[in-house]
Amino acid sequence: MQSLEFLPVPYVQINEQYEILFASPQAVEAFGPAATLLDLIDSESRPQVLARVTPQSGQGVVEVNARMRDMPLALCDLHQHWEPSGRGHVVLIHKDPHLLRIVDQLRQMQEHLRHGSVPPPVPPPVPARSSQADWDPLAMHLSTIRDLVRVVRPALLDAGKSAYADLLDRELDEAEGILQEKLPGD
């Protein structure tokens, strides 16, 4: 079990009765201590877990509402993989609402590209918070999007869609500018 404690994600090992045999430090930090997997799951999602998270399922992903330490209800992807012995390996990944919004925006842009239309500018989400730590995730998401734009830029240029790449750069510059204005002490 020693190597499992170094997994960088919330991981639990369970038996067929959903009893937690091992929980990574990240799992305990994110969800708190628990005796069973069902203790981590919201009561409305438990029937789904009982039906779809079983040794017979083998492996797969189930979307559940989990109870995290810092939020009573959090949408998560529950990744499962079962050993023939009936021991289950479970990873719970919280679906960050800001990231979901960004993914949705990227899907919309892909649809516009497929249909040859110019997508409307998308205003960046601006949380009503004031501490530096609250803005750091947004800065990280913007940086990730900028990296993605760098990766897809050559394909856009090859397809004669340089206007899309330029639009993405302008929107990111605008979002980063707004973020800098909102940062405390600036």
Head-to-tail CA distance between termini: 47 Å
Q: Could you name the CATH homologous superfamily of the largest domain? A: PAS domain
Strand line-up of the largest beta sheet: 2-1-5-4-3
- Main sheet? 5 strands, antiparallel
Form type: elongated
CATH topology of the largest domain: Beta-Lactamase
Radius of gyration based on Cα positions: 21 Å
Mean pLDDT: 82
Query: Helical proportion?
Result: 40-55%
Report the uncertain regions.
none
Reading the helices and strands in chain order gives: EEHHEEEHHH
Which architecture of the largest domain per CATH? 2-Layer Sandwich
Proportion of strand residues: 15-25%
CATH class wording of the largest domain: Alpha Beta
Structural summary, described in words:
The chain has 186 residues and is an alpha+beta fold. The protein folds into two domains: 2-94, Beta-Lactamase; 97-182. It has five helices and five strands; from the N terminus they run ββααβββααα. The chain has helices at residues 25-31, 46-52, 97-115, 132-158, 162-182, and strands at 11-14, 20-23, 59-68, 71-82, 88-94. It has a five-stranded antiparallel beta sheet, covered by helices on one side. α4 runs antiparallel to α5. The mean pLDDT is 82.
Task: Output the keywords.
2 domains; alpha+beta; five-stranded antiparallel beta sheet; 186 residues; Beta-Lactamase; 20% strand; 44% helix; 5 helices
